[in-house]
Write a structure and sequence with these properties.
The protein is of the alpha+beta class. It has eleven helices and eleven strands.
Length: 331
Amino acid sequence: MPKSWGQKLKILYVLDILKKHSDEQNPLTATAICDLLARQGIEAERKSIYADIESLCDYGCDIIYSSSPKGYFLGERDFEEAEIYLLSDAVRTAKFISPKKTRELVKKLDSMLSVPQRQKRNKDIYFDYSQKCNNEEIFYNIDKISSAITDGVKVEFDYVSRELKGREFVDVVKRRKVSPYALTWQDDHYYLICNYEKYDNLMHLRLDRMSKSEKTTEKARHFREVSEYKETFDVADYTNKIFGMFSGDIQTVELCCKKEIAKTVIDRFSENIFITNVTENEFHFSYKAAISEALVTFIMNFGDSIKVVSPESLKRDIVERAEKILKVYKN
């Protein structure tokens, strides 16, 4: 066969065709691959396709031959079809991703599927616009803050908070400079865990409320000065101890729970809780958590199904909240 345009690149086009047009239910014959190459202006014979596929397999590509229906398809991909669906659903439901970015990310994920797989998907990308933020800077913020965390320097940004003035909620913008320690996705929002230099504690700020973020050259305060962590900031451990991203003093909390809510308790606290006592109808367990308004609310949601055993400060918080609620309804 005489040389023609694209012969040196043909093997790459063969791999690209297998990625885009083949899957387990839609394998491609050598003839079909030749036809798709011809659309790219590349001439090829079936025998050369067999040789290309053999070379690609030697390179490590997972190309599988199917006898029914006959043809070749790319087996292992960077992401399986179900994984693409899962990631796409996560993007669609993530509140901190803007509508524009949601569409862009879902389209990028869909491009990893084969053409037949994409044809099975809905062409329209459905999500609730009212639940999405409109801050297009969030990915820029992530990049800047991640770089600042790596380099151990402070980051500065405008932060928007909503405040009630008269009968309306208004945006109040303040410039903040903080020492950043970690980024985490909690309760449908993306948070920065950091320290504001005026205080000796940790605070959590939402990335969707940030704008004009800038990485500074000022050295960040080490997290050992404001947290229990010394060498590594354990994000998983820290977020496990707080409720609704409300910070507070970390203490050992002991609760007495009715067995009927055991599944809910395990879902919230994970299976790492330390069970200290079990009776026919109840069980006691202890857990390290931040004493905060969010924890009080969580406990009170279960009424008489959960009782605080310790610490005393949390018991007082529960009683005070209950008395305030009672007073509202007595008036």
